[in-house]
TrEMBL record:
The chain crosses the membrane at residues 101-123. Pfam families: BPD_transp_1. InterPro entries: ArtM/GltK/GlnP/TcyL/YhdX-like (IPR043429), MetI-like (IPR000515), MetI-like_sf (IPR035906). Residues 16-126 form the ABC transmembrane type-1 domain. This is ABC transporter permease subunit. It is found in: Cell membrane. The keyword Membrane applies.
Length: 134
């Protein structure tokens, strides 16, 4: 496994766990009591009450972490990981066309961020959590 993947997994894991825990903490304890009063089993309480609300609260932060992970991967090139920024540095040293190469790399990072934002939009729209444009 390459270093970029390892660094990305560590970043995603730490941020995702923290965001999910904060999502679960944002739920009022009264909702759990109400679900139990209705006679729901613990698994049903989690699947039908807790998880949808927690992921609705944590979703935007999780997608933000994904975008930061993509942007932060350019810092991994300093640790001798061959990726987009390192390849662009090599190309600049061979062609002496820094503006063109860095503009293209910036455009690629922008497209990747827009793709992740599109996934977030679809995720929120699919789950009925779309808050924008009302």
């Amino acid at each position: 496994m390459s270093r970029t993947i390892k660094v990305s997994l560590v970043m995603l894991r730490s941020g995702a766990i923290e965001n999910c825990l904060l999502g679960f903490e944002s739920i009022s304890p009264g909702q759990i009591d109400a679900a139990r009063a209705l006679g729901l089993r613990p698994v049903a309480v989690y699947m039908k009450i807790l998880a949808p609300q927690a992921y609705a609260a944590a979703g935007p932060a999780l997608f933000s972490n994904a975008i930061q992970m993509v942007k932060g991967s350019s810092l991994a090139s300093l640790v001798a990981v061959d990726e987009l920024t390192a390849a662009s540095t090599t190309l600049i040293s061979e062609t002496y066309k820094a503006i063109e190469v860095l503009s293209f790399v910036g455009l690629l990072y922008g497209l990747i961020a827009m793709f992740i934002l599109g996934l977030q939009w679809l995720y929120e729209r699919r789950n009925g959590w779309f808050r924008y444009g009302r």
